[in-house]
Amino acid sequence: MAVVFPLIAILAVAGYGFLKVGYGRWSSPARRPDPEMSAPAPLTRRALLFGESPVGTVAMRPPRAVEAGLFAERCTRCDDCVRACPEQVLVRDGDGLPRFDPTRGECTFCGDCVQACASGALQASVAPPWELRASVHEGCLPAHGVVCASCREVCPESAIHVAPGARGAATVDAARCSGCGACVAICPVGAITLAALPQEAMA
Ligand code: SF4
Ligand code: SF4
Ligand code: SF4
Fold it and tell me: What is the rounded distance in angstroms from the CA atom of residue 160 to the CA atom of residue 172?
């Protein structure tokens, strides 16, 4: 008994040390996504409560929406487009207007929302469907030595380039990007956002 007791104590201390080193390695800044990098855009209290767009951004309307002012006039807030979307990527904003939320998935441009809209706020004649384009921010893992190409793998337009060997952030070819949003939700650190890009900027 006099030998067994110190032996148990030694094993317990050694086990604790092993676990601590292991955890320390896993949780070192090099392995862990930086919370600053993955932080979502700031939301107001009202936005959090009512699902509004983040501060400083223009709400992303459904594809083939008429000009913003006219859209707000024509849209009757009926939610028909929101209900019609098979991908469930449209949400009702705090003001009742519909908004595309790419964190819910990809717009396939199926046109169901446009067909469902009886008010003229969404029109099949609006082309291109929108001017949204993806952009990659500094949190992108390959820019920090971590291999990742999730966005490239899901992009239906082959618009994303990721250099092999984690040598720099992913880049988006704006001329190919359709703004579908498939890359947004898949990114493990939230490094991709969509924003309206004027056509001339894509030339
Ligand atoms: S085009 Fe289709 S997938 Fe895209 S928002 Fe409209 S209903 Fe949804
Ligand atoms: S999904 Fe794309 S943008 Fe996100 S970390 Fe991976 S390579 Fe970067
Ligand atoms: S928004 Fe769609 S088309 Fe554009 S880069 Fe992302 S996945 Fe590709």
Answer: 5
